[in-house]
Amino acid sequence: MTSKLINRRDLDFVLYELLGVDGLTARERYADHTRGTFDATLDTAYAIAEDHFAPHAQKNDEQEPTFDGTRVHVIPEVREALDAYIEAGFPAAIHDFDLGGMQLPYVVAQACSGVFTAANVGTVAYPFLTNAAGNLLAAFASEEQKRRYLIPMLEGRFFGTMALTEPQAGSSLADLRTTATPAGDGTYRLAGSKIFISAGDHELSDNIVHLVLGRLKGAPAGVKGISLFIVPKFRVAADGSLGPRNDVALAGLIHKMGYRGATSTMLNFGERDDCHAELLGEPHQGLSYMFHMMNEARVGVGLGAAVLGCTGYLHALDYARNRPQGRPPHAKDPASKPVPIIAHADVRRMLLAQKAYAEGGVALCLYAARLVDDEKTAPTDAERMRAKLLLDILTPIVKSWPSQWCLEANSLAIQVHGGYGYTREYPVERIYRDNRLNPIHEGTHGIQAMDLLGRKVPMARGAAVEALFGEIAATAAAARDAGLGDHGAALDAALDDLRGTTSTLTSVAGQDATLFLANATPYLEAMGHLVVGWIWLRMALVAAAAPPAEGPGMGGDADFYAGKRAACDYYFRWEMPRIAAWTGVLKALDRTCLDMQDAWF
Amino acid sequence: MTSKLINRRDLDFVLYELLGVDGLTARERYADHTRGTFDATLDTAYAIAEDHFAPHAQKNDEQEPTFDGTRVHVIPEVREALDAYIEAGFPAAIHDFDLGGMQLPYVVAQACSGVFTAANVGTVAYPFLTNAAGNLLAAFASEEQKRRYLIPMLEGRFFGTMALTEPQAGSSLADLRTTATPAGDGTYRLAGSKIFISAGDHELSDNIVHLVLGRLKGAPAGVKGISLFIVPKFRVAADGSLGPRNDVALAGLIHKMGYRGATSTMLNFGERDDCHAELLGEPHQGLSYMFHMMNEARVGVGLGAAVLGCTGYLHALDYARNRPQGRPPHAKDPASKPVPIIAHADVRRMLLAQKAYAEGGVALCLYAARLVDDEKTAPTDAERMRAKLLLDILTPIVKSWPSQWCLEANSLAIQVHGGYGYTREYPVERIYRDNRLNPIHEGTHGIQAMDLLGRKVPMARGAAVEALFGEIAATAAAARDAGLGDHGAALDAALDDLRGTTSTLTSVAGQDATLFLANATPYLEAMGHLVVGWIWLRMALVAAAAPPAEGPGMGGDADFYAGKRAACDYYFRWEMPRIAAWTGVLKALDRTCLDMQDAWF
Is A155 a catalytic residue? Predict the structure, then answer.
């Protein structure tokens, strides 16, 4: 059976042919690895995802977690899947050998995460939140905290959460109210309420380690007064043994459109004034710690959206190949046999669009994941700095472009199925509901737009955006020399358009910040479409240069590369022209939304 | 409390100021009506929708109908709501006084239907399918059939369905297999299976009258051999009394993403070879009868999508006005008070887009509904013929544009709510799930595209598309004389673009039907965006000419008209530029999708 999660041939193409990930084994940190160990890890991820994660995805949706006032009930298949995941060592995939980890490159670990996510977004939420919390502990916790909290997380005995959002504050972290009071013994007593905390309560692990954003009593107002705290569900003694239940109360579960298998919780800390908390790292550094991990968390969201695009696409492709219906325009004899619907040009349009969005999204996200590796392990300072700049500018795009367009891909997957796609008998409607979360969490679409235009474009005097534009220009030039000159010219034209647009916008930033940022969202979308065009052209260049192993029509490499070329053609002919509609608004410094009055709605 | 269904001021604006519906009372058929009777009917619709339909919309979604193997169970609130609907006379709203009807213009009845749909799409499915079946009976049934089937439907005692789709055939009606064999007494015995039959079984009415597409035994293959049959759930004797249960079996309920309150069924006719059926009208005319009603059914779907856009928009607007969060870019002092999120330009963008999509969609659909009236009751042959041409060319656009863009509006409504919008505590996630059906049923998006380009554009030697282009050109000219010259010029430019695109496409229709139709979908989308631009400019012209009753900022007419002008500005600056991306593909006669090979995916 061919996997309907992510096309493995495509994943290999992106990792090795596009990104040259096997070259990372030349670096000291990954010297014990080979392409063979990477492949074996991916094989294991596919096997566990197919055997343990995918089979209960629908059940996890239909029988979402419940709270009886005391305990949270989760279907047993979740625990079984997580046992397999833990048994295979995935919780510590990227961590040091010293900590019991696999010391894998981040990009390889992310590829594996993508496979699990494509199989079951609900179940993966538990380990993925644990991974995010674990990465923060690895970076900023004391040795003692690592021993008591991080090691059990890497071993799969403790799970973790990220507790940022509060009901009254939403995206506005400046308005957080959770407060920590010194207890006199170096620990704190925490009080506050958090909402939308994924995996915030369950009985899947021995303990849950919440990383909570809050304020030390008397801290400065706004984001400068935010600290990060470790708050376990059960207190952990110095010897690692579990103590009494901490004062963390589940106020209720949130019932969502999708992602239903993952508990989403409202948590109250300190209802009985006895919520024990430890400071993580230094006081008032909470937000900078979060930002340290933000790029990776956001790459993870983008990849999650992209792989949902992939699995929806593969389901639609399978349906289109096997569903006979209708006849081509030139053969309307009703006595003739109906054709599989993939024979209809409009169905091929919907499949090509999905391929362009989903495979483009995966390539973009894994490119960014490789930048995470390069930021940490590239041989020279200059390479590491360039990787950091590229990652910083790309992060809002990597988070938001797949969240927007791979949701659209899932809508097209439903459409290919016709009426069946709207029923709960086929997985595409669930995948679409699951994916609708991605433009919201980990910074909404609008927040990403403000981050891109308001922070990342001006950062380092424009060096980040210049680095990105330089990469794009180089690809456009390479295309001219490789028989893809039309697309190279189109990429150059779009790049010029975005350069001009960026200049126009930044020229008003100083005198009118409100006007500068008013249309940040179309800027994000135009940049996103440009960047994915660049990624597609890079893929087409690889495909054009690769010697096909066998002839066309065999379902082998020649067809695979022809598909890459065709999807790139689709992207350049159908998608790139959208950019001008966004940049037109931007270059005009359009005030329509800014000037709209409340009373006129 | 302000209604969150459809802004009543906007509905009045469209009906009276834009479409001059009160002028219909000059026609003989509507001579007993006045604007007062129209208003009173709308008042009643709002009252019943608010009091009886909206309150159980969420419950209807959470507790969808179930089938215990014998009976279908529906929550009791549905019956109560339908009692109020029937009591007020809505089942016979458009029918003759002679039949006990209200003899209302179709456009007024559709406005009322929109109000009910905005309140609860699940519950309205029962009467709306009945209306569709009733309209066919009114047009084609014998007097005897009308007496036995239609009259009880108009009285609300019988409900109806439209049973077209079969599991193996989907959109391809040529492949229908349901077969009718003469019983020798003028009736038939029907055998076949139907799927996706909304309101196909329930105990909400004394009887269910299925109108079933099938073939007479020995009929020609394809669509030329399709007839239409009346198949009651309980047989009806000559005196109207109910006889034994007919051989119509519920094979199962279909579980859907949304629209959950409406039963969607698989029905088996003739499992025991005893399914009694009557021919409706003439043999082999089934498809032409369906086409007779198709325009109205498709206008109904478009309007349903548009009013879901409206109610989502009004919920998002209310949330945005009442949710304090964040500060404007120029006021970042964390000690300052957070502002309502409507103060943020990006939130206003999302609200303006929703307003543009939803109000534009409603105006488009009610314009088409008025064409239905004009086709039947305009004073002169020429006017009736022109109305028919405009309705024919517009129908695929009216069905599909709101289905696409008002779904997008609902996605933006979720986004305005942030994380809360993704939860089932707020109605916008349900509305979004409900609306996702509309691009699928009553002819998918792709089917509408084929209808527009393949049938409607060439029809009557292009007279329909020329009539539409003529209307658009007239509005562009009027804008130049009314201070809206920029938008008039932009509309003219887009019209020229579509004229050229249409010529390019039709010039290849004769020699290569496959190439002609390959990119029908972007043609549909480009035409849709042009047409809604035209509608918005017409609305802005009305708003510009209207004398405001009081000053700005009072929430009165001046603000309302300013809002119309601003939404038109938004549409022309942000939406019209999308057209060029679609027409570029079309004018190039792009073969990317057509040439894509199965093996390359």
Answer: no
